[in-house]
Amino acid sequence: MSLEQLKSREQSSEFGARAYEFVRELFPICRSITGDGVRRTLDLVAARVPVQRYEVPSGTQVYDWQVPPEWNIRDAYVKDSGGRRVIDFQQSNLHVVSYSVPVRQTMSLTQLRPHLHSIPEHPDWIPYRTSYYKPAWGFCVRDRDLRSLREDRYEVCIDSTLAPGSLTYAECYLPGASSEEVLIFTHVCHPSLANDNASGIAVATELAMAMAQQKHQLSYRFVFAPGTIGAITWLARNESGLARIRHGLVLGLLGDPGPLTYKMSARGNALVDRAAIHALGTIGVASRVEEFSPYGYDERQFCSPGFDLPVGRLTRSANEAYPQYHSSADDLSLVAGRHLGESLFACAHLLEILDCDGTYTNTSPKCEPQLGKRGLYRPTGGKGPGQFEHALLWVLNQSNGQRSLLEIASRARLPFAVIRCAADALQRTGLLRETSLEARTT
Ligand code: ZN
User: Is the pLDDT of residue 441 over 50?
Assistant: First the structure.
């Protein structure tokens, strides 16, 4: 299925159902910022789209950061004196603080207690906690279970390794007619959480699959990497190619019921910002736009002042903006195929604008050209023009070689797809000449 098909509401729901199946497959994997969970995740992406994988050795300096040792975990538990696992990693990988150092000790509840984390307001949810850069260990538990623990001798085991290895990421690069690029970035470092971040991985993969099915003007680079350190590592290794990036989008949290939320780039007036505002405002979805802030996901790195790339972010609920965020309640029941499908539908409309926006010149600007004789206008008079006919008039009136189709679509308050269709039809009759193409090829 192609991006064209994704732009249809009905067909996007089929994509959404397939994306949900992918979320289910991704969900059980114990991911972190390094390790075999990331590799298994990228294997599943690689089974769907062609990817190039990269392993960056632990200790590599990336700007002010260092690639950490690689973390892997096989098992973890807390057993009471009766040998019963009162906390068990095999039940949920959220039970272990990610990046916990290995532990094998017997201790009292008083000694164990500082290493246990819970959410008292939601006593049945297991929190998700990490300790990437400070050597530590801990368990995350339901508050209800925490309260039921009695003083005892507990056998504590975290069978993990923190050792020199590498940070893994993957890129799916889809070359277009131009080497100018659209960067799509999604993080792949969270364990069993469905919305954050299995939904982002699934949506980015579906988009790459759709984009691979059709011709496009720009080149597309989908990056699947761990959050923060992965984005920083990617930037450090790709600095010389950043000038090719025309537009960028960070994707995540795209399967929950919240309205689609676009977060502006730090520039605030990049084409991707204007395109997202236009797309979300014209395709009939519940949506909102947030101003940029230097907090959130990896837009923080791309929009840092040393790069200031035109990269926005698309989520549904934003990070920390839904109660289930970073807890076991961010599970498969929070995510639905119809939400994933709608997210894909919106992405397809946004990417269409990025790929197809251009400027044109009306070759017959003195009075309206006669559209009927060119088969562009409905032959029956009396009835007002439809949306497409309106789009023809707008494109002819506004195409002075300076205004882009996006500007025209915004002024006309018509979906970009309709304006683009009108421009294509006018171009076929010779009434419109692409100006941006001349600019691109000279
Ligand atoms: Zn997160």
Answer: no
In a 10 Å sphere around its CB, with 0-12 CB exposed, 13-18 middle and 19+ buried, how is residue 350 labelled? Answer: buried
- How many other C-beta atoms are found inside a 10 Å radius of the C-beta of residue 180? 15
Compute the distance from residue 9 Cα to the ligand 1 centre, in Å.
Answer: 29
Ligand 1 centroid from CA 218, angstroms: 30
Beta-carbon neighbours within 5 Å of ion ligand 1: 196
Cα–Cα dist 73/365, whole Å: 69
Burial class (CB in 10 A: 0-12, 13-18, 19+), 345: buried
The Å distance, Cα 26 to ligand 1 centre, comes to: 15
The per-residue pLDDT for 440 is: 53
Mean pLDDT of 378-401: 85
Q: Do 309 and 303 contact (CB within 8 A), yes or no?
A: yes
Split at pLDDT 50, 70, 90, the class of 383 is low
Q: What is the pLDDT of residue 381?
A: 62
| Percent of the chain clearing pLDDT 70 (strictly above) | 97
Which pTM does this prediction carry?
A: 0.95
234 CA → ligand 1 middle, Å: 19
Residue 180 CA, ligand 1 centroid: distance in Å: 30
Domains and CATH numbers, the chain: 3-67+166-328 (3.40.630.10), 71-163 (3.50.30.90), 359-440 (1.10.10.10)
**How far does residue 236's CA lie from ligand 1's centre (Å)?**
22
Percent of the chain at pLDDT > 90 equals: 91
Q: What is the pLDDT of residue 402?
A: 94
Evaluate whether 427 touches 434 at the Cβ level (below 8 Å). yes
How far, in Å, from the CA of 321 to the mean position of ligand 1?
Answer: 11
Q: Mean pLDDT, to the nearest integer, of 96-123?
A: 98
Residue 359 CA to ligand 1 centre (angstroms): 40
CB 140 within 8 A of CB 117: yes
At residue 163, the 3 state secondary structure works out as strand
Distance 188 CA to ligand 1 centre (A): 10
Q: Average pLDDT over the chain, rounded to whole?
A: 95
Distance 61 CA to ligand 1 centre (A): 24
CA of 252 to the centre of ligand 1 (A): 9
Closest to 171 measured CA to CA, from 189, 184, 155: 184
